[in-house]
């Protein structure tokens, strides 16, 4: 078994355990979601606009709330995730809500082995690329799955945030901004439920903005824009303060918290 395979198997086991805990958490607010509340945030809604009648591929979908939110807006959605427990719950939700999304369990880097059609939109968001050792095959797969004229959109936590270790009381800058070496983390709890006794074992990688942008360009995509923002839609980092607009900021804001990139297949 290669190192990468071992890393992915460990991450898959952790994400399989996270599914049940996240599905019951306040953060994912399952009852409100089932009652019609969208799980999508203002950034992606503004960037992608009216998706009615468009085909959309959602990468690393967890248990499908965002996928199904796009589906409710009229998109024809297909989604992939590494976790079979996540995909199982996504399929149950799709059926329960009477939607027509399709869900595939696979490593995101293997998407083209499982899905052959091309899409108007490829979408991924919040905490996805850090699970990938190399962005080149990821970007290549995105280019393969986009129709000519199609759009890729990512909104993601800023790479500066991943330079810190958050397991102690005070975050400590510990990792390189764009680190080739794998980062192993073991801790109790999960971002959606800090009080959970679940043990997380995770392998991740840090990718700087240059890496993200350049791999997309090398794959043949045209970058429409790159934006950075001093706020997060999720309260998943220590000591954040909720703003009037519902976003979360740091008490001492010295760097951006999220970035977004929109790219096109010419």
Automatic annotation (TrEMBL):
UniProt KW Methyltransferase keyword: yes
Domain Methyltransferase type: 58-154
Gene Ontology molecular-function annotations: S-adenosylmethionine-dependent methyltransferase activity
Pfam families recorded: Methyltransf_11
Coiled-coil residue windows: none
UniProt keyword list: Methyltransferase, Transferase
Gene3D superfamilies reported for this sequence: Vaccinia Virus protein VP39 (3.40.50.150)
Keyword Transferase on entry: yes
Record-level GO BP terms: methylation
InterPro entries: Methyltransf_11, SAM-dependent_MTases_sf
Domain of life: Bacteria
Family matches, as PANTHER family: TRANS-ACONITATE 2-METHYLTRANSFERASE, TRANS-ACONITATE 2-METHYLTRANSFERASE-RELATED
Protein name: Methyltransferase domain-containing protein
Species of origin: Winogradskyella jejuensis
């Amino acid at each position: 078994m290669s190192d990468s395979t071992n890393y992915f198997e460990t991450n898959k086991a952790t994400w399989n355990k996270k599914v049940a805990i996240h599905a019951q958490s306040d953060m994912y607010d399952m009852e409100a979601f089932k009652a019609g509340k969208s799980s999508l945030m203002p950034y992606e809604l503004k960037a992608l606009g009216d998706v009615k009648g468009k085909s959309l591929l959602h990468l690393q979908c967890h248990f499908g709330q965002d996928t199904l939110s796009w589906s409710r807006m009229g998109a024809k959605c297909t989604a992939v995730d590494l976790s079979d427990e996540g995909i199982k719950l996504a399929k149950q939700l799709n059926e329960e809500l009477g939607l027509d999304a399709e869900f595939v369990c696979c490593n995101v880097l293997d998407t083209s082995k499982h899905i052959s059609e091309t899409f108007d939109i490829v979408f991924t968001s919040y905490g996805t690329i850090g699970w990938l050792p190399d962005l080149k095959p990821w970007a290549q797969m995105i280019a393969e799955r986009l129709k000519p004229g199609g759009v890729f959109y990512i909104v993601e936590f800023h790479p500066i945030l991943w330079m810190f270790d958050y397991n102690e009381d005070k975050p400590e800058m510990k990792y390189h901004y764009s680190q080739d070496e794998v980062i192993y983390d073991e801790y109790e709890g999960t971002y959606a439920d800090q009080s959970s006794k679940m043990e997380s074992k995770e392998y991740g990688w840090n990718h700087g903005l240059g890496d993200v942008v350049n791999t997309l360009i090398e794959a043949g995509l045209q970058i429409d824009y790159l934006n950075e923002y001093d706020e997060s839609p999720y309260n998943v980092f220590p000591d954040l303060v909720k703003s009037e607009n519902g976003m979360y900021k740091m008490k001492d804001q010295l760097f951006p918290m999220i970035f977004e990139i929109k790219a096109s297949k010419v």
